[in-house]
Amino acid sequence: MKNVMKGLSLCCGMLCFAGTVLARELDPVVMRINGKDVTRSEFEYNINKNNGEDVVDKKTVDEYVDLFVNYKLKVEAALDAKYDTLTSFKKEFRSYRDQQIRPYFVSPAQEEKELRRYYDDMKKSIGPDGLVRLAHIMLVVEQKATPDVQAKVKARIDSIYAVLQQGADFSTLAKQHSDDKGSAVHGGDLGGWYAKGQTMKEFEEVVFSLNKGELSKVFQTPMGYHIVYMKDRKQLEPYESLKPQLQTFLESRGLKERIASVTIDSLVRNSSGRLQEEDVIARKTKELCDADEELKYLIQEYHDGLLLYEISTREVWEKAARDTAGLEAYFKANKSDYKWDAPRYRGVVYHCKDKDLVKKVRDLLKSKEEDQWIDALRASFNQDSVKQIRVEKNLFKKGDNAFVDHIIFKEKTTPKALESYPYTAVFGKKLSKPKTWTDVRGEVISDYQAACEADFVRKLRETYKVEIYKEVLNTVNKH
Q1: How many angstroms separate the CA atoms of 168 and 154, rounded?
Q2: Strand pairing partners for 418?
Q3: Which residues make Cβ contacts (< 8 Å) with residue 202, sequence separation at least 6?
Q4: Is 184 exposed, middle or buried, given 0-12, 13-18 or 19+ CB atoms closer than 10 A?
Q5: Residue of 247, 331, 399, 407 with fewest CB within 10 Å of its CB?
């Protein structure tokens, strides 16, 4: 017996080994990053999705490898930094994952049951009188109207009714006379189909007594006097013909989400406290991803993409943007790369209430550093409720400011003085090329971030081991 069991155990072990070998043959490892295998199918998913036919700057497989490796290295660094444990990361990832997974908790039978229930409720609500499509002519009578006013309105609608009896066009008369302007422009058509309970009782009593094509007599409701034309009547269509519309409508109202919530809650309750909602969804995710490679890589892509964004923001983009010393040093080292096609004017344009303020402002600006100008001007001239000056500080190019164009760039057109601030002057420097990194802030930050990114990737490649299996790489999209 022991020998039999030993033989069975050996056979099972051989089968497991054979299964693993077969899986590797079907989906071999194309690279190993920080000791983690990347299968050919995962690499193919990424290259085919991000380097497809619609991509302008298409990469070869070899070119894409570098991009993919850098991406994976950043994900590894983010995991080592435990960015995947951040509350913000967990919340955003779970939100995306749930969007993909929760619909799988909805069975076709459950959805069908809800659609049927909604249809049956709607049919019951409509009742045996069915649906009507109407047009009307209405003359409004205020509830507090005098008998004389009511009589005049009644006489008017009686005359309209008499004309209709003689064959006049209902649509034309509705456009000319109806006080319901919303329907009047459509020839009195109230639009859509109505069931009992959607309008006034006095209105419905008359309307639902009419046959298709029939004209009502003049009747009164709390709104005024009406003449109704029954354009059409019908019973609610069969379920199967309405099903697609019901599905669209109820899905827009969160039908699947509600069913999914009920199903998940039921699984949690039936677990006798062993499972929480997150456990149920995580299990479903694993089950689905084990069966659907496309879904697995889609969810992994979002997971890794969030980590990539987190580490890039923290370690490169924000760090570089805040590193003023580094930005200044980078600009000085690469100063010749930054040029303008035309001069700029770095300074202020100031508009004064009184002429003698022009010199006072200039004298104050001369005594202060550039980064102190605005605060100094505000403290000296605009502390009271009455503002003595208006100021614009910028790096101006031609066309940015009419006063700079005229005073500095010698444009002939004289700009119109500001009302209440008729005296205008400028203070600053005309520059033929950038003098500091702030003169080309956007370009320098972008370039410095790119340099920091390259340095970050270099350090990652020094930190983590990368192995590329060329013989497998050569089979990508060719097997």
Answers
A1: 19
A2: 421
A3: 219, 220, 221, 222
A4: buried
A5: 399
Note down pLDDT in tens along the chain; length 479 residues.
455 444 444 444 444 444 444 455 689 999 999 999 999 999 999 999 988 777 788 888 999 999 999 999 999 999 999 999 999 999 999 999 999 999 999 999 999 999 999 999 999 999 999 999 999 999 999 888 899 999 999 999 999 999 999 999 999 999 999 999 999 999 999 999 999 999 999 999 999 999 999 999 999 999 999 999 999 999 999 999 999 999 999 999 999 999 999 999 999 999 999 999 999 999 999 999 999 999 999 999 999 999 999 999 999 999 999 999 999 999 999 999 999 999 999 999 999 999 999 999 999 999 999 999 999 999 999 988 889 999 999 999 999 999 999 999 999 999 999 999 999 999 999 999 999 999 999 999 999 999 999 999 999 999 999 999 999 999 999 98
The length of the chain in residues reads 479
Helix (H, G, I), strand (E, B) or coil at 214: coil
The contacts found for 430-435 with CB under 8 angstroms, 24 or more apart, are 430/343, 430/344, 430/345, 431/340, 431/343, 431/344, 431/345, 431/346, 432/340, 432/343, 433/338, 433/339, 433/340, 434/331, 434/335, 434/338, 434/339, 434/340, 435/346
Distance from C-alpha of 297 to C-alpha of 282, rounded to nearest angstrom: 15
Are the CB atoms for 307 and 89 separated by under 8 Å? yes
CA-nearest of 459, 108, 208 to 315 is 459
